[in-house]
Amino acid sequence: MSDSAFAHAREFVQRVPLLAASTHMTADRPAVTLTFAQSLDGKIALPGQALRLSGAESMAMTHRLRALHDGILVGVDTVICDDPQLSVRQLPEPELAAVVHPQPVVLDSHLRTPLTARLLTGPRSNPRLKMPVIVAGPHHDPDRRAQLERLGARVVVVTTDADGSGRLCVDAVARALRQLGILRLMVEGGARVIQAFLASPIVDLLIVTIAPTLVGERGVAAVLAPAQASIVPQLYEPFGRDIVMAATIQHQ
């Protein structure tokens, strides 16, 4: 990665007002940044396989964002498909040597996180990484919970939505994470997680990377259903081949 790409990423996040240290932090929940990369036709993934959309320059911006947050949240399907590390890797030295890696958080109602996931194995070889917090629903397998906890994960149980869908309540997740000391939360996906947070009024900042790629009808859409919200763009910025938008969300 070039020095100019690192410098561009640093300068961009400094121009996003809602990343200021005290913005939107409350006693009840973290400040929430929702961020994801999508294709020109609005797709974020292919079923059952990893899909790299971000170019090197916009990826440097994403890792700069990670370094500014206390926690990074994904859904269990992302863990199963992509096996991510959710760590900060693309920063210049000596910043990288001194960075505090964010707390990985997995939304996993029924505790399907693989026991071999890198989120569980990585911290054993790199003590600077944190074991994941796995947020489960009330109807999970206690034996599976015991297995995950023996490997080092922390399992937190929250309520599900009142509509009977079995989805974890986003507000309850945010409150639980705030109680764990997470002041800034970065939400990275996948599609169901993006939709849940878009439908909730707790998102303070939306950052979307748009890649000049067409995935096609097999792709997984970033937004599964129309959200009752309006996007208010704050910044548009080219990063190499990609365009990055920073925006706020106004709920109707």
Structural features:
nine-stranded mixed β-sheet; 26% strand; 28% helix; alpha/beta; 252 residues; single chain
What secondary-structure arrangement, pairings included, does this model have?
Layout: H1 3-14, E1 31-39, E2 43-45, H2 56-67, E3 71-75, H3 76-82, H4 95-98, E4 103-107, H5 118-125, E5 133-136, H6 142-150, E6 154-157, H7 170-179, E7 184-189, H8 191-198, E8 205-211, E9 220-221, E10 229-239, E11 242-251
Parallel strand pairs: 1-7, 1-8, 3-4, 3-7, 4-5, 5-6
Antiparallel strand pairs: 2-9, 8-11, 10-11
Overview in brief:
It contains eight helices and eleven strands. It has helices at about 5-15, 55-65, 75-80, 95-100, 120-125, 140-150, 170-180, 190-200, and strands at about 30-40, 45, 70-75, 105, 135, 155, 185-190, 205-210, 220, 230-240, 240-250. A nine-stranded mixed β-sheet has the order 6-5-4-3-7-1-8-11-10, with helices on both faces. A two-stranded antiparallel sheet has the order 2-9.
Helix content: 25-40%
Rounded to an integer in angstroms, the radius of gyration calculated over CA atoms is 17 Å
Q: For the terminal residues, how far apart are their CA atoms?
A: 41 Å
Strand content: 25-35%
Total of helices: 8
Mean pLDDT across all residues, rounded? 90
Poorly predicted regions: none
Please outline the major beta sheet: 9 strands, mixed
Please list the strands of the largest sheet in the order they lie side by side.
Answer: 6-5-4-3-7-1-8-11-10
Helix/strand structural class:
alpha/beta
Shape: globular
Please write the string of helix (H) and strand (E) elements: HEEHEHHEHEHEHEHEEEE
SS elements, strand count: 11
